[in-house]
TrEMBL record:
Family, as annotated: Belongs to the bacterial ribosomal protein bL17 family.
The name this protein goes by in its record: 50S ribosomal protein L17
Pfam families listed in its UniProt record: Ribosomal_L17
Ligase recorded as keyword: no
Amino acid sequence: MERKDVLSGPGIGREFLSRYAGYRPMVKLLMTHGKIRTTEEKAAHLRFVVDRLVSLAVENSDASRRQAYRFLNDNRILMRLFDTIGPCCSEEGGSYVRLNPIGGSGSASTMTMVELPTIVK
């Protein structure tokens, strides 16, 4: 019997848990530096994850801190998310991540610059 999470939706060639765990380092880099460069498909999935984490930071409750910590596993980045990124994004209505296509080289996949506009100013 095949698993449903393998068959449903675009998946960059990995099962759900492997794909989701692969976003943790990218999210940490994005929270630290404010922008990263990745493929277009990974950027689309990364946008969903980061928007969810920033929404938790805007809410700023104990439960939302616990949920964010379950994904990030890093107190330094958690503090940055809730102390600097969350308050800056509280005026925005959503879609906290900006995706800028920067093209690919030759036959490579299309590259995208993923930015948190509240950090990159």
